[in-house]
Amino acid sequence: MNPWLLPDEDDSQEDDDEASVDDGGMIEESLDDETDTRPGQQPITIGVLAENWIVLDVFDGCQPQVSIGMGIYWQGVAASEVKSGCAMLLIPSDEWPRILDGVQLMARAIAHIRNDREAKRSEKA
Question: CA 3 to CA 60: how far, in whole Å?
Fold first, then answer.
C-alpha cells in the first residue's frame, strides 16, 4: 500500500502498465485499466520527464514523515529515506543530491496538498 495516497485513493496499479516516451522526452504512464479509477472518473495519464523517472522511483519507495496529534500533519520525506532508496536501486552516489532535491520537492508539494485536505476534513468534523 502506498502511504502517500488518501484513504479513498487506489494504489492497485500493476507494474505492467504501458509507458511510452513522447517527442519532448516525457514518459507517459497510462493508468487506464479499470482498477486505477473510481466509478465516474476518467483514466489518468501522468507525464514524467525521462531524466526524472528515477526520482519518481525513489519517491515511490519512501515512507512519508508525519506528526500525529490532534490530526495528521504531513512533513515530507527524510533524507535518510532517499539515501536508502538510492542505495537499494543501485544509483551512483554522484546522482544522490539531484535525486534528494527532486524527491523532497515532490514530497513537500504532496504534503501541502495532504495537509490542506486534512484541514478541510477537520473543519467539517
Answer: 9
Q: How far apart are CA 64 and CA 107, in angstroms?
A: 8
Q: Is 41 exposed, middle or buried (0-12, 13-18, 19+ CB in 10 A)?
A: exposed
Q: Is 28 helix (H, G, I), strand (E, B) or coil?
A: strand
The grid cell for 86 is: 538510492
Decide: pTM greater than 0.85. no
Integer Cα distance of 99 and 14 in angstroms = 24
Mean pLDDT for each 10-residue chunk of the chain (125 residues)? 53 49 56 53 75 91 87 89 95 95 92 89 80
CB 115 within 8 A of CB 71: no
Q: What is the number of residues in the chain?
A: 125
